[in-house]
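Section 3.1: Structural characterization of target chains.
Under the original work plan, the team committed to producing a structural model for every single-chain target entering the pipeline before any wet-lab resources were allocated. The record below documents one such target. The sequence was received from the expression subgroup and is listed exactly as submitted; it comprises 425 residues.
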Amino acid sequence: MKVEVITTGTELLLGEILNTNFTWLAQELNLRGFDVLYQTTVGDNPARMKEVVDIAAGRADIVITSGGLGPTRGDITKELVAEYCGVDMYMNLEVWNHIHDLLSRRNICIASNNEKQALVPSGAIVLHNAVGTAPGLVLEHGNTTFIMLPGPPFELQHVCEQELFPYFEQRFPHLGIIKSHTLKVRGIGESNLAEMLDDIIVHQSNPTIALYARHGEILVRLTAKAPSAEEADALIAAMQERVEKIIGPYVYGYDGDTLPEVLGKELLARKQTIAFAESCTGGLASSLMTDVPGSSENVKGSVISYTNEVKNLVINVSKTTLSKKGAVSEWLYLFAGDVTAYYMTRSVAATLLHGMKVKGFYEASVQAKDNRAAAHVCLGNWMFYAPSVLGGGKKRAKAQFDAALSSMPEGCRPLSAYTTRDQIL
């Protein structure tokens, strides 16, 4: 079934609010086997809304609108859809009684324009809205099913879960479901990843595979369509096995996983801890870790040495080193190099991880300069520096990084087989 979602409201076009209704509807509809092929946002303008409704009815089996069911003159969705379908409106007493009771319980005076919300197109199915005054509506017209939903996200989701989705299950029992599973990838560029998976991408059918670059990582989405959830899961599992045989070392998590959560779980499983010495990042790295519930089990602490004075007085970086080398190192230094970041990490390790064995603990210094972020990471007695994807010298960084890893003692390996050079922090 082809679906078009029309979100209404001039405030959406002005960018005053996010269009979260479409995001939620698209996810839920796809899970239920509907093909969401189009999405249109239109302001509160009768002529443009008529045009949008006419176009949608010509290319979709189901047209879903959100918004425009309120009591004001600008709420025109219901009236325009009724006009398009050639039906009259009538006062639905059940809806009116609900509006009266709801507003009375909230100690809100009923205004004359609230009657507008109780007007229902003839022949429409009313979707009860227990948490708001505007009911949802289902109206058939020819080969098109119009579904009108309230605009407030909480009300829209309530009407869908309690009324619309059960209606869909009875009306369209043959659709099956669509399920998706996402692999989260770091440490490799999108073009290189696409090349590695090219054969699978070219010959995909069901499940499908799609790559998305987002926020410094790549999402590999596997989507299957099947009569049941169990069959869809089986199709996805088989495809995931094929994909991970190729890119497994770069996969750090799945679906809702975040890198700080995964790192924290891995540290906890290994009974290890982490500490930070930060400079220009101002506590960002440690904040990402401590935002995760339970992080006190693996995060020992952090020093935000934003100024040279703090680097010198608090974490014992000598004034000589700061003067000669500067607060941010310019190039690659491996092992016990005479650079600021080295002393930052070693001092934090001695202060916050004192009494622990040197082998097997991790501490990190994160700095930034000229829009480039750099991570200095100590693993046990070994220290290396690697610029981020925004920095330069990546080819040399990769070579020296790999050389350092290959010669490290077993206790100083990365956190897991899935931890790559860009994932250490």
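The chain is about 40% helix and 25% strand.
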